[in-house]
Amino acid sequence: MPSPRDRSSTPQPELLGRRAVLAAMGALPLLAAVLPSAAAAGAVVVDPAKRRQTIRGFGGMNHPAWAGDLTAAQRETAFGNGTGQLGFSMLRIHIDENPANWSAEVATAQRAAALGALVFASPWNPPAALVETFVRGSQTNAKRLRHDSYAAYAQHLDDFSAFMKSNGVDLYAVSIQNEPDYAQDWTWWTADEMVTFLRNNAASIGTRVIAPESFQYVKSMSDPILNDATALANLDILGAHLYGTSYANFPYPLFQQKGQGRELWMTEVYYPNSTDSADQWPGALGVAEHIHHAMVDAEFQAYVWWYIRRSYGPMREDGQISKRGAMMAHFSKFVRPGHARIDVTSSPQANVYTSAYTDGSSVVIVAVNTGTAAASQPFTLATTGSAASSWVSDGTRTLAAQSGPSLSNGTFTATLPAQSVTTFVITSAPSGGSDTRPPSTPGTPTATSVTATSAALSWPASTDDTGVTAYDVVRVSGGTETAAATSTTNQATVTGLATGTSYTFAVYARDAAGNRSARSGTVSVTTTAGPAGGCGVGYRVVGSWTGGFQGEIVISNTGAAALSGWSLAFTFTAGQTVTQIWGGTAAQSGGAVTVTPADYTRVIPAGGSVTVGFLANAGSTNPSPVSFTLDGGACTTA
């Protein structure tokens, strides 16, 4: 299955026997005129208050040793943001194992930084003196960092950072290793080795640290880091590559649960392959859909291509933007560092993909139509727009400026051409007439009650000239904000948390005109670890009939202390739905059921039990749940 990463005729050494050839994926969109009577598709509602991750940027790799350095003109095309330029805001560079070669990285990094780009670096190999060979399967000359050389390797990475700084480039971060799990041609690392290095040595590196940069976002490489508190404390950015990664594997629930205070970057990919011309259409259209899923499904804060200049890359060998490059530019030129992604309907109709972003004063919408027919798509903004612009790329146009769209009371309908991508930029003004003053910043919240699965928060109230109408509680993880709760008062309870886990929360205030305050200070809480002495659950079907049954759950406290205010969770797997319950209150989402106590079952004495009964609908089969958790801790089953 492996194929070359790049089989060009460049005389520098290339990586042969490299990637799996990836399947091509899609196509993209264009703009439209106002059709006040909305089209058939449901409107995409763009509410800047619904913020998700903060974007670091988009960019690519410069590797002079393997692909030759960018020329002065090509640096302007890559990192400038004028007409005919890519608007890249990130540059990835190589940490050579030999410090004598470091100067090759300076010129492009200097110009990229001068144009405002964030620069970070990745190594392929440690210095030769720190490496040993070993047998790995059929590979008899596999390389790894000697375990007694970890401190020297950390010094090597720190020395590179200091070298770049002495040349006017303040690196944002360095990686521990490029693709440690796909290292036939460079240095292998196991997940345990990565954890050990992070635990014991990464803190000595004087800049942010990236790991593990798995070639295919292999979670078994990064899960151990997230599950080791000491290693995680020395990680700043979880980096991943997306070679052959299916969209179904883009989300990362464990990172969302445990990656508090960390950033999430996609640090290398080419898509869909390294064999086709980057100007092939509609093949290039798949790049835009790929970026869409990376931003929306994976919630990456950065998207970084492999070689910037290549026949299959964003810049052709002649230094001009390719069609694949235009797909990136529909994001990189308009979604700038510091923009926050807005949570909108990601696929409002077949073959159409939408994402939205804001910097507080404008809204950027990127709409992709991969279908072979034009699509009419309405949009509704929760803020009114004072001006709007748009750009389209399709089979005949590349980043072509368009007129409009025209907005009517914050709405417009766009005709997205067949196999196209359109970027809309709307300069926004808060709705609600002349009220443009946001509420004052809420006070820093405090946690008044923390359980295994919830946290009760309160905060000093905001003030506003027309009155505060709501507060939005958000969970903060690195540059990402996730909606956690909404309240009309200055207190709220966040539920659905994982046991024994740290979370960080903050609060925004909103007024009737839609103005949103600055974010409050943050509060960190750690949920409790569940029932200390354990629990047991007995589940049985008391009786059944066509289409339904009666069930009973006996919850036993096998610990030495009483439980109060418990929460029991389990999952039905055959479509069963609870219709009535006594002894508790049930909440169900899909097959997942959560039961909280009634007043008379709230306390389970040490060594005691309570009983909950319920009625439920059932299909042709009615299997019992296979596992139960109480306050996030697993229970034994009888």
TrEMBL record:
Residues 427-451 are annotated as: Disordered. Residues 430-451 have a biased composition (Low complexity). Residues 441-531 form the Fibronectin type-III domain. The keyword Transit peptide does not apply. Pfam families: CBM_2, fn3, Glyco_hydro_30C. Residues 528-638 form the CBM2 domain. Keywords: Carbohydrate metabolism, Glycosidase, Hydrolase, Polysaccharide degradation, Signal. Belongs to the glycosyl hydrolase 30 family. This is Cellulose-binding protein. It comes from Actinacidiphila epipremni. The lineage of its organism: Bacteria, Bacillati, Actinomycetota, Actinomycetes, Kitasatosporales.
